[in-house]
Amino acid sequence: MPLTRLYRDGVLEAEGFGVEEVAERLAEDGVVVWVDLCGPSRSDLELLAEELGLHELAVEDAVQEHERPKLDRYDTHSFLTAYAVRLDHATGRLGTVEVDAFLTSKALVTVRADDRFDIGRVTTRWDESPHLAGCGVGFLVHGLLDVVVDSHFEAVQALDDHVEGLEDMVFDERPSTTEVQRRSLAMRRSLVTLRRVVLPMREVVNTLMRRDVGLVDGPMTPYFQDVYDHVLRASEWTESLRDLVATIRDTQLNIQGYRLNLIMKKVTGWAAIIALPTAVTGFYGQNVPYPGYDQPWGFWVSTAVMVLLSLGLYASFKRRDWL
Predict the structure, then answer these.
(1) Which whole number is the average pLDDT over 250-272?
(2) Span(s) in the chain for CATH 3.30.460.20
(3) Homologous superfamily, domain 3-256
(4) What's the pLDDT score for residue 246?
(5) SUPFAM superfamilies per the record (predicted)?
(6) Counting beta carbons within 10 angstroms of the beta carbon of residue 319, is it exposed (0 to 12), middle (13 to 18) or buried (19 or more)?
(7) What is each CA distance from 19 to 23, 26, 136, 159, in whole angstroms?
(8) Percentage of the chain exceeding pLDDT 70
(9) C-alpha–C-alpha distance, residues 230 and 150, integer Å
(10) Which of 112, 123, 126 has its CA nearest to residue 81?
């Protein structure tokens, strides 16, 4: 069932009336109407478009999903597309929820494909600022954008925490290479998705604040400016996290290379130490007489030579930090 509200001179006067009453109520003086359609059919939208004079291209965009965040302006209204986001903390994957809106001089019509977007947060935001309700449609649009941008900010903060955990995994004494790679890939995908929905919002909010649009009046200007500041912070934070994830991946590869070189260095050093006894025993294993070959002291001399040479080579490698 569609959700509806009517404000008269900045005061909430009616809720829950039918969509068929919208045109009649908009004909009254000093009223602003909000209509929310969840999962509407094309015929529902066309009926509302006929009553409000909505452009057919805007209606088509509202029916089709996966449009980019944008603000299209027509003669009698504007069409807004934005995306709220939600992060799955278990997998690090980011989900997006599209919300469309028709903006007229006296009405805001929100369109959702399903109930994944919590419209209750929007109405709560409106109820928390009743002193701004007299600003008309600009007040309603601000509440909607504020909730959407807050979801961006919450997501980027959560992703920042995930990236910090990824850093700890990289510098762990025994890191799980597969897990680091999996989480790095998930982070990069989520950040790419977040960037795709956050960056265009700068242009959307900036356009809404223009004087020729006529949506934002004096009292609402600081509030839209606050939303715009949050959009800038979220977009800049997203860009820095993308660079950080790439740096973490490069760091992981460098650490892997360093550890491999360290292992090879140690293996080579021990191989050189083992080669000395092998050389001595190989020499004494020749079928030719050598000093003490038929005496017990000859065995002890050869053993002492092997031990002393091995210890000397070990000390030399240790002093050069080769072991």
Answers:
(1) 74
(2) 3-256
(3) CorA soluble domain-like (3.30.460.20)
(4) 79
(5) CorA soluble domain-like, Magnesium transport protein CorA, transmembrane region
(6) exposed
(7) 8, 11, 19, 40
(8) 90
(9) 8
(10) 112
